[in-house]
Amino acid sequence: MTNLRLIRDRFALVLVACLLAIALYAAATSAAWAQAAPASSGLGRFDGPTITVDVESGNVLSANRPFDAWYPASTTKMMTAYVVFQAIRDGRVTLQSPVTISQNAANQPPSKAGLAVGQVLTVETALRVLMVKSANDIAVALAESVSGSEPAFISEMNRAAQALGMRRTTFTNPHGLPSRGQVTTAYDLSLLTMALLRQFPQRNDFYSMPAVTLGRAEWVNSNILLQRYRGAFGFKTGYICDSGFNLVAGARRGGRTLITVTLGARSGLERAVVTAHNLDEGFRRAGGLFGGASGTALASYRPSGAVRTEATRMRPIVCQRPRVRPTFQELASAYGTASPAYSPQGSTAAAFQDRDASAPVLPGTTVQAPSTEGEEINVLNVLLGPVIREPRPVALALGGATGPSVARLGRWIVPNPIARPGAQLAALRPSTAAAAPGQIAPAASGPAVVLDPSAPASASAATSTSNVGRAVPQPVPQPVPRPN
Questions:
Q1: Active site (annotated) includes residue 74
Q2: Which one is catalytic: 102, 111, 134, 243?
Q3: What does the alpha-carbon distance between residue 89 and residue 314 come to, in Å, rounded to a whole number?
Q4: Which of 5, 261, 269, 279 has the most Cβ atoms closer than 10 angstroms to its Cβ?
Q5: Other Cβ atoms closer than 10 A to 470
Q6: In whole angstroms, what separates CA 371 from the centre of its chain?
Q7: Is 133 a residue of the active site?
Q8: Cα separation of 406 and 236, whole Å?
Q9: What pTM did the predictor assign?
Q10: More confident residue, 24 or 398
Q11: Please, are residues 231 and 55 in contact by the beta-carbon 8 Å criterion?
């Protein structure tokens, strides 16, 4: 009997000790969460270039620094698609024309489709992979197939930019990877977006695909508004370290169509939230049953203050180690939430503080909250709303309309030589010492890029100012593969 009592007492002591250890561990874990998840990132509110335009009226509804020079990253591929659409309209190619992967295309850094040299796909398939996967190899293959060479296609891109009034834009490649002199503005990207909508309305489905499959590969569009924002239908995301997170988006609601450009967000989540907020404000600002969209016409929109003519480098912010991102609580407080039940003061807000928002953000992303109930909250549901359109992929296939998926060797496939940056830039240099608008100046002297000529815009151009800008971006190494 005495032994049983002794065993029972010892068991009780062990049980109390275990419970005490569990309580201490829980307290320490909660303290660690609180310390690792500060309420503020220290980055401040987003202040990058933006512009929102009503498509029907052509009026600017809101803007912030829209004429500041910026790196376009993969929003460049919108111009790549525009030049291809022009070539189709002019009868130079068709949607069923073959696109062959050259050695030059296969050598491009990620993000890419990863097709082998000699593989063939149609122009249509290439365009769809380009817009969803943001594939750099496909961009180069399209350029070579449409214009005969990558430098020739780049020249077409710059001519098209000038014709559209994109006075502060210069292209030096068809994909948007870091390249000296490749700059644009939010305003210029809005001109390009309007041109795509008005000149090629039959191509709108190329921007709205939530996902595609090619063989065994499946790629989901990194524009998460396509899945969560009511009426969203396009256009393109972009990211390199120097640009930050860019997004050109469009949405239709109540018979109105808006486009908006967001450049330089500090995370993929921030660019989506800021873009959704600007669209919401645009739809609220004007319209209605009898109202038109008020604002200044895009064609006559002018800078109202100082314009930054050298592209801002976001690398020290978005690619620093350790990474610092706008916190969930900051985004919820600044731009509101899609969940009326959410409280920014709630303890579960800390669950999202240390998310790496530069990672691909896909439907169903959840984070375990550090609460006693183990509550699981979907950050995208709270900030953007639930999934309203599942990313069902569009099935694509290799091969031409009637041809094989791999080109025959010999004279049927002569891969282009690997393009060197120097050769591409030399092809764009004018013969005179001074740089022509949108062209690369001789390396010996002069500005790197002339963004805006002194001559007034033509009747078809959207704008011209007396401000002659020059961008002298610093050379940067090829980026680590990241989401676009």
A1: yes
A2: 134
A3: 38
A4: 261
A5: 17
A6: 34
A7: no
A8: 29
A9: 0.74
A10: 398
A11: no
Output the CA–CA distances (angstroms, integers) from residue 273 to 48, 266, 381, 463, 467, in the order listed: 13, 11, 11, 29, 32
Pair 378, 361: CB distance under 8 Å = no
21: its two tokens: 């250890």
Q: Which of 77, 112, 133, 236 is catalytic?
A: 77
Closest CA to 119 of 450, 358, 344, 409: 409
Residue the block writes with tokens 């006559």: 300
The question of whether 208 is a catalytic residue gets the answer no
How confident is the model over 215-226, as a mean pLDDT?
94
CA distances from 113 to 101, 134, 165, 202, 406 (A): 11, 8, 32, 25, 15
| 351 alpha carbon, distance to own chain's centre | 26
- Residue 119: φ, ψ to 5°: -70, 145
Choosing from 74, 111, 179, 190, the catalytic residue is 74
- pLDDT tens, 33-92? 334 445 678 899 999 999 999 999 999 999 999 999 999 999 999 999 999 999 999 999
SS (H, E, C) 192-258: HHHHHHHHCHHHHHHCCCCEEEECCEEEECCCCHHHHCCCEEEEEEEEECCCEEEEEEEEEECCEEE
Instruction: Report d(CA 380, CA 28) in Å as an integer.
Output: 29
